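User: These chains co-purify. Model them together.
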Amino acid sequence: MALLEVMILSFGGQGGVTAARILAITALNEGKFAQAIPQFGAERRGALVRSFLRISDKPIRRHSSVKNPEIVAVFSEKILKIAEVKANTVIINSKQPVLENCKVFYVDASSIALELNLISAGWPIVNTAMSGAMAKVLGFSFGSLKDAIEQTFSGKLADLNVQAAKRAYEEVKEWSA
Amino acid sequence: MKKVLTGNYAVAEAVKMAKAEFIAAYPITPQTTIVERLAEMVEKGELNAEFVRVESEHSALAAVYGASAGGLRAFTATSSHGLLYMYEMCWWVANSRLPVVMALVTRTIGPPWNIHTDHTDLLTLRDSGWILAMSENAQEAFDLTLIGFKVAEQIDLPFAVGLDGFQVSHTAEVVDIPEQSEIDRFLPERRRDKPFVIEPGNPITVGGLTANECAMMLRHDMNKDMEKVGDLVRNAGYIRDYDLVERYRLDDAEYVVIMMGAWCGDAKEAIDILRNDGVQIGMLRLRFVRPFPAEEIAKLDCRKILVVERDCSIGKGGIIATEVKSVASSPVQSVMAGLGGVDVGVEDFVSMFRGFVKGELGEWWL
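Assistant: Joint model of the two components:
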């Protein structure tokens, strides 16, 4: 795999930064090199947060931000109203494909999180469900993802997050223009 | 064993594996997660160290000063304004020849308030007597922390490990962690008798008023000893080989770029792109600012040198370029870029380096 650059667009509190890190561990489990970069600034709960993920067969040298991602993961449909999403492939938390002019993978991560009671301060925490969908699209095995989630969470929380990831890994659907 | 770690967690892991005995620190972004992680390690019993909470960075380094003077392997970490607040103690540590290791997560000095990387904070230590290293990634931040304890304790000079705020400190990447047994062989316990030990029943005076000649002799000796650091780094016996510089595609380079820090990875990719177009360009990456790799720079036999740096001495310009000009035999051009954490990536370096080769590059990359 040549260098693959991914951008995650999420609202502060949805777990976009953690998702990038989980997928970096997953990539390492698959024998690859990876980098997860949170973009810090005026982020706070509810604000749009960008995080970046790089995956490669070779050590990753660059440390600048990702500007032209091949893949964008969108953690909420509402983000489409405030940010331009430009990529060949978009992975979105949505019941419908809702985008045109690109390859779309969609999964109802919010419902998965709500059904598993992965809720914090009233919000569904969709990062592990979205990690499941992203791992599938990236061609990673579920076992590698499961291990990464178990390194990140412990106990019952790990189990619930693995379940969320598994459901999204299986339920993510593809739509092409 | 390979792990995904942020630069800050990699430093904390290195401090744990170095079996540091004393840590004092005051939180400041982007350094905070280093000492947060170390506090957690101490709390869980993974690291048998005294962790002292203090009310300021000045006190943090004062506490570390005492511990190190008492013979302990001592560590602290800071950034930007925190460094400035402890600045007086930085000189006390250096002039007392204490082998303290400090992680310095580079951050812009305000105002305006800014938490992103800029190398001016690190360079305020330039003349103090600290060994100054700057890492390119989390792996180097880990390795240089361990090498830091070894070299500092061999030469009795403090060692600062620089890592770029966020770009390295908060970026999680793959780090190869050696076995504890390998580290134990590399870095035995600190010798308690060097350079001196303050202990009960054996009173000595440290830092008191002396003859002027003593003060001058001290700085003379420190300067002489700093010159030995290159050999100590090269012969450290660490798991991976280290040197004051990294040479990247330099063998036949007509154009040489000199830089330090995380963005060197982006710049190397730009060098590869120019190389594919037949431009003979390479990089001499500074892994250390002190000691200054003067010999390595003087030896460069090329058409011209470009120094790209994230700092500015107001009234003079690029700090590193000024130093490079003092030793280089080829013409040197200076460009200041990325101050205040401005993002500079591969595409920027491609056009910057093309402009340099053509002689069309200005002094500021704005």
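Chain A has a mean pLDDT of 94.
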